[in-house]
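F.,

This is the one I mentioned.
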């Protein structure tokens, strides 16, 4: 119990430091790790991994799941932060697209020694035991989840099931960390989905309805005054430069 209390205090201090713009030395070292793929390192200026992971409270020894990890941008940095006592699970959806890149990813991740690639069929639970994960990261994915024509202005049932599975896998007090392209407050689900964005009010409503508590948010890390938040970013030259929501939720104790 004492160890848990100390860990919680360390994470709280890390999050407070991140809000103030500070990045701990171990996270800086993870960002600077030469084992990272050059393609990923080239995106650091836009993605600001040090500030983001400091804000989320990633710490040594954690088990972290990177949902739909793709090319492993955050997977690689997290691997350096959690260290040899930690575990990073690079989760991907089964299919031809992943099959084409799997061998290259296995080679890319082998340098880190603590990354496991997990592949799940669409609509199936994550392959993790109940209460076994410290943090789940969902980066730039929710804009695919918050709307369907059938659900209209309600959260899709399929998304509610995904969030419920996240809660199942997370330890009590575990972190659900989210990054997403921002749409203006009050934007309809249909419109924000067309822009490949989500409004903050909708995201909070959906995630908290699944039982998570909003623990902290940071509106400074990815704020861009040149983004009016009402555009399809990959058509307007804002790829990698959008204003983004950065939220930290906690699973109930």
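My design for it:
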């Amino acid at each position: 119990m004492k160890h848990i209390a100390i860990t919680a205090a360390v994470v709280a201090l890390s999050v407070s430091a991140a809000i103030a713009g500070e990045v701990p030395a171990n996270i800086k070292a993870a960002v600077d790790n030469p084992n990272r793929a050059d393609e990923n390192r080239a995106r650091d200026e836009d993605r600001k991994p040090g500030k983001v992971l400091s804000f989320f409270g990633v710490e040594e020894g954690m088990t972290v799941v990177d949902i739909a990890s793709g090319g492993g941008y955050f997977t690689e940095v997290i691997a350096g932060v959690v260290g040899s006592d930690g575990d990073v699970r690079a989760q991907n959806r089964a299919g031809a697209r992943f099959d084409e890149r799997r061998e290259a990813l296995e080679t890319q991740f082998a340098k880190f020694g603590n990354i496991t690639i997990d592949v799940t069929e669409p609509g199936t639970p994550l392959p993790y035991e109940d209460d076994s994960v410290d943090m789940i990261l969902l980066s730039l994915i929710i804009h695919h989840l918050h709307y369907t024509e059938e659900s209209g202005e309600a959260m899709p049932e399929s998304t509610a099931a995904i969030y419920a599975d996240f809660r199942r896998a997370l330890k009590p007090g575990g972190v659900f960390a989210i990054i997403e392209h921002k749409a203006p407050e009050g934007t309809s689900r249909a419109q924000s989905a067309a822009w490949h964005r989500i409004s903050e009010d909708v995201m909070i409503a959906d995630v908290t309805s699944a039982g998570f508590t909003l623990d902290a948010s940071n509106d400074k890390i990815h704020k861009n005054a040149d983004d009016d938040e009402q555009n399809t970013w990959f058509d307007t030259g804002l790829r990698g430069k959008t204003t983004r929501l950065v939220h930290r939720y906690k699973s109930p104790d």
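The first helix runs from residue 2 to 19.

Talk soon.
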